[in-house]
Design brief:
This protein is of the alpha/beta class and about 500 residues long. Strands 1, 2, 3, 4, 7, 8, 9, 10, 13 and 14 form a 10-stranded mixed β-sheet that branches. Strands 5-6 form a two-stranded antiparallel sheet. α13 links the parallel β13 and β14. The longest helix has 22 residues.
């Protein structure tokens, strides 16, 4: 999940307060490592595997400890020659989120079982179940918790600003990957990286770090789950009309789900109608601004009402420009409900029905308790992790993040998609899987299409998959099974192509 900032996800979170102290005994001790052995059945194959929760120490050029980064690795036992065995490195986003969502929601051997029908997870105890769709039968899996998340933190004289930024963060994650493949003898194994939400931004920045020099770590595939690469698509700054176009298909899907539009039309067909309208008549109208003729304005307004379920009067008062937050409040106002941002299938009840935006996101508070409890229980009881620190689910780093891209001057336009384009052009075996939920307002699926349909990305090696769920599409059981199957098939196909 989570998602842009959960990630699962772009949330606005409390400002991260960094605690800094002198070098402690903890800084000087050896890296901690907790290893347990297990067996499980994944996609019909019985697999014996080791689960290793391990601390990776990052040091400065002068040999001073600067960070402790924890990885959680699941590696198949008894593999004589790992050359043919893929390994996948995964993370979530935020920035400031641990890997809990992809770990306990999709790709770990156990998963948190939350309601599939967009209902609140309630109180404990929560379900923690076997995850037979995990692709451990075809790939080893390593989850990385970047600095400021999970148990990972700065050490010694290092400061958060040394790691909290697009490039700073990517460099540290790339260093962890290099250390892991060196220690485990996996330099010649097929390699995949991937993330969710801001984790897709991180994936683009990390592939730049891994493949951008003369000591490349070549990557076979990238998983982009709930993608955000070009941040202009979510910036609703006045004068930027791109977000209105990009969010329209998600609004259409949401209106249809809640019975406000598109009755009797398959969801993929209805969102494609919205997509084509956004690319043609709607874009043409917005580009004309105040010069838009009255007759064309009326046609566009009427079609927007048909696609979104909103009243034409409301659309006119909005100057044809529908903001996601306002839509989430307005769509079901007549029922006294709001719809979710991360997953618009979820509904919530605000104290103030007359407000302009929802007071909070029901699709986040509908799952947070289960994942927090499930992860902590699993680490400490099953994987035997003995760490006194609290495992940080969401570190709240968004406000302290350095968003500047190197070589691009002022941070007026943040777009890391060109990093993926360059990597694909310089690595003929690199493929990219893009997984998108129809009901995701945080990272709308049309935004992923827009971002990757330019920037030098090689379209022949770009693979889109869609799900009738939201940002964390795996909380819906049918979408979970489809996502797991799509990822597993992607890995097998890419490795097969390389052979």
């Amino acid at each position: 999940m989570l998602t842009l900032l959960i990630s699962s996800s772009l949330f606005v979170l409390p400002f991260f307060q960094e605690e800094h102290s002198d070098v402690s005994k903890e800084d000087l001790r050896g890296p901690r490592r907790f290893r347990t052995e297990h067996t499980g059945t994944f996609n019909g194959t019985r697999v014996a595997y080791a689960a290793t929760v391990e601390e990776v120490i990052l040091e400065t050029k002068e040999g001073e400890r600067e960070a402790s980064v924890f990885t959680i690795a699941y590696v198949k036992e008894g593999v004589v020659d790992p050359t043919g065995r893929p390994v996948s490195f995964l993370w979530n986003g935020g920035p400031g989120s641990s890997s809990v969502w992809l770990h306990m929601g999709v790709f770990g051997p156990k998963r948190v079982n939350v309601p599939s029908d967009a209902k609140d997870d309630g109180g404990p105890p929560y379900g923690l179940v076997d995850n037979p769709g995990c692709f451990l039968d075809v790939s080893d899996v390593v989850f990385i918790d970047p600095v400021g998340t999970g148990f990972s933190k700065t050490l010694g004289e290092a400061k958060g600003e040394d790691f909290f930024g697009v490039h700073q963060d990517a460099r540290s994650v790339a260093r962890v990957i290099r250390k892991w493949i060196s220690k485990n003898g996996r330099w010649n194994s097929p390699k995949f990286i991937g993330g969710e939400s801001y984790g897709t931004t991180r994936s683009a920045a990390v592939v730049r770090e891994l493949e951008g020099g003369f000591d490349d770590v070549a990557i076979n595939g990238i998983f982009l789950i709930s993608t955000i690469l070009d941040f202009s698509i979510v910036s609703t700054t006045p004068g930027n009309d791109i977000p209105h176009l990009i969010h329209l298909p998600t609004m259409a899907a949401t209106a249809q789900y809640h019975g406000k539009a598109g009755k009797g039309i398959p969801v993929d067909e209805f969102v494609d109608q919205a997509r084509q309208f956004a690319l043609t008549d709607y874009a043409h109208a917005l580009l004309q601004g105040a010069s838009l003729p009255d007759a064309e304005r009326a046609r566009v307004r009427a079609r927007l009402a048909e696609l979104t379920g909103l009243d034409e009067t409301y659309i006119e008062r909005s100057d044809l420009r529908l903001h996601p937050g306002r839509f989430q409040k307005e769509l079901l106002r007549d029922r006294g409900l709001t719809v979710g941002r991360l997953d618009s299938r979820y509904t919530g009840e605000d104290m103030d029905d007359a407000g302009e935006n929802p007071e909070t996101d029901p699709s986040f508070y509908g799952i947070d308790g289960a994942y927090t409890a499930g992860l902590n229980s699993y680490l400490r009881e099953t994987l035997k992790v003995d760490v006194d620190d609290q495992y940080t689910i969401i570190g709240g780093l968004y406000g302290s993040w350095d968003w500047k891209l190197q070589g691009h001057g002022r941070p007026t336009y943040l777009n890391v998609a060109p990093y993926i384009g360059k990597a694909m052009r310089q690595n003929s075996d690199l493929h990219v899987l893009v997984a998108a939920g129809y009901y995701d307002f945080a990272t709308p699926f049309f935004g992923a299409e827009y971002s990757l349909n330019r920037s030098g990305v090689v379209s022949e090696r770009l693979h889109f998959t869609y799900y009738e769920a939201g940002h964390m599409m795996y909380v819906n059981h049918a979408s979970l099974a489809k996502l797991q199957s799509d990822v597993r098939t992607f890995v097998l196909d890419v490795v097969g192509r390389d052979e």
